[in-house]
Design brief:
The protein has 437 residues and is mainly α. It has helices at 19-49, 54-79, 84-107, 113-141, 147-175, 178-197, 221-235, 237-266, 272-280, 282-293, 296-300, 302-316, 328-358, 365-377, 380-394, 396-406, 409-415.
Length: 437
Amino acid sequence: MRPPSTSPPSPSPSPWRDTDFRRLWAGQTASQLGEHTTLVVLPLFAVLTLDAGAGQLGVLRAVGQAPILLLSLLAGAWVDRWRARTVMVLTDAARAVALGAAAVAGLLGLLGLPALFVVAFTVGALSVLFDVAYQASLVRLVRRDQLVRGNSALEGSRSAAQIGGPALGGALVSLLSAPVAAAAGALFFAVSFVSLRRIRRPESAPERVAPVPERPEHAAPDRGRIREGLRFVAGNAWLRAVSLASAAFQFSFAATMTVYLLFLPRELHLTGASVGLALAATGPGALLGSVLAARLPGRLGHGVVLVSAAVLGNGALLCVPALHGSSTSTVLALLAVNFVFGTFSQLVNVTIMSVRQAVTPDGMQGRAAATITFVGMGFTPLGSLLGGLLAQEWGLRTGLLVTAAGMMLSPVLMAASPLARLGRVLPAPREEPRPTE
């Protein structure tokens, strides 16, 4: 009998060698571009084509964002019951149809604000489903030791779309027209649909538990699955810390950005082009952060990377209130701040997602992602309101300093949690909770 081998395990192959992963990445990238382009196109459609007022535009944006609060938890329960790629393909097709219909109706002069509200809510709801599904789909497609690199690629695309999508949407509306720009958004979703349909590897359907008629809670099985997701996240120390840190960051970031977007043009007297250039610097930073996320956690430890990157990224925004004037040096300083913020924020995002996926059983992936999204994003409207109130009562410079300082609460929470003690190798998922019988 041969003695057991003592050689170190061979490194896992890159997910980029997997044709199906490349198709998932291409489909997710196209979908994210369509989603973030649409976030700008639909409001501009309302303003430029339908002559909507400020109040109506506010309602339109609220309607488009409402599905995050209304559907995130349900989306997690649904994705854990269905094949994730089926969810992605169906939502791509439905969004393409909705935007295509809006584009045709707009060109014919038949689209009014009530119909645009319906389109905004529909696209927003389907986007919530897609975003939860693609996170679960990655876990079902690649090996666990490939998750960090897979997430690095997918989150890099998402970050690039968040930066480039709104700019692309604005350019399409300016150069062409709002209806044509809406048609371009539909085309992105159609490209995603085709790419995802070409994935060949079969995805097994998640195991479904037959309901017991005698128990009243089985009259609403999705509600029970949502409760399971909430209990799982609340009972897992790592995921509980992720939720709290995410909520603190998103609340403070929403407040900060409300003041920030007023501070640049009104306090620093920057032109629109300079403001756009400064904000665009987060894009290259996010791409660098995605690259670093594929390497640093495995070398330095996930906990060290999470806390230090959050301190560096969030702390960079504390430099902005110290700037004065609209000189070239001010613009260069803003470029540097936003690049640093984009780099380390993305490093945190990818590492956090890898932690969440690694410690979560396959059958809970959708609900865990949806629960954390719900908790993390649920307070952002209040954060935006707080930012506006502070800017109005205390002034732009003081308001920006206070809200940016509030972002430091997120790394403090992570440092005081088990997340800070995570090493180079992520822990295995704990046993999935059994459904109620």
